[in-house]
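pasting for ref
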Amino acid sequence: MSNRILFVDDEQSLLNGIERRFGLDFDLSTANSGAEALEIMDEKGPFAVVVTDMRMPKMDGIEFLKLARLKSPDTVYIMLTGNQDQGTAIRALNEGHVFRFLTKPCQSSELVKVVEAGLRQYQLVTGEKELLQHTFCGAVGVLTDVLELSHPNIFSRTERIQNLVAALQTALRLEDHWEFKLAARLSLLGFALRPDERTGADIGPLAGAGADERYRTAAAAGRRLIERIPRLETVAKMIGMQPEVDGSAVIQVCRTEDAKATMGATLLRVAVLWDYLAHQGLNSAEAAAELRRCLPGVSADIVDALAELPMEEPHGEVVEVPIAGLTEGMVLADDVLSTNGNMLIRKGRRLTQTIIERLRQTHPLSGSTPPIRIRASSVHGPMELAMA
């Protein structure tokens, strides 16, 4: 967890004094402009606390904070300025999400107290975020692995949807929220409650009559299940809102939980639809045109970002690996069927420990058991080890 601090001010003499006063007590960096500070954040970040002057040439403190928050939303920001105008303070708090607002001249003892409070706030925010990510996302990962074994037609899609959501976050320069990842893993949960699990694979405009209604029903069921879990109310909203959003929302900095839910639902909606179109044999241009037809209000930035992605994963060379040689991260080249011909795991699935254990229970570890066909690009380390 970072304890680094960045001071930003156009007065070099003040920065020199800050280095003398704080340099021995904190992991400190300084910048004499907003542009330089942004470069330092890229090179040395993340910073726990950023203290910035308000009045700086070319880029003032509020403009700097808007850009800095896109790079590091969890950082605690403190505004230090000689301007005591109340309107400036309000603007800084509202637009820059400033943790504290101090006026120059400021006693060094007071500044130390505020910086230490900022460090504690950063530790609270990032500590809770790590707990939620590791606990919730880890538990959900195991849950979806188990559900995939009983509903492979549905949950084999979740990894692809999750990858699409992550790619869109990067391309659209969105704030990173753990809820987006979790919602992607659970986006199709409601389909597992339907009597015909095959409907999990037919969410799209070419899926026939009733597909939209099945989507709405499944999304509502998934929301009802997830909202019963404390702290997952926003994730539940994302799942439930999927069929209702039009794809137009691109909210880089979500200032409210409602905005976060809208952005998350938008990511899920377009990712689910794009995944469907990609597996109907459409090329990027055809899929983009179909996406616009289905969602006339979809953002051009979203369509452009999706069109840059490959429609199909390259198959490449395939190798055969015995059950005993399977490791996490390998990707299946073929569907895996049970001895009576039922689907166990869809091709293209990246193996987890849960899936490997299921395969070992289903297929005895004997010399007569046929090997599993794996994409060679996903086999790490010497091939002799994988085949041993």
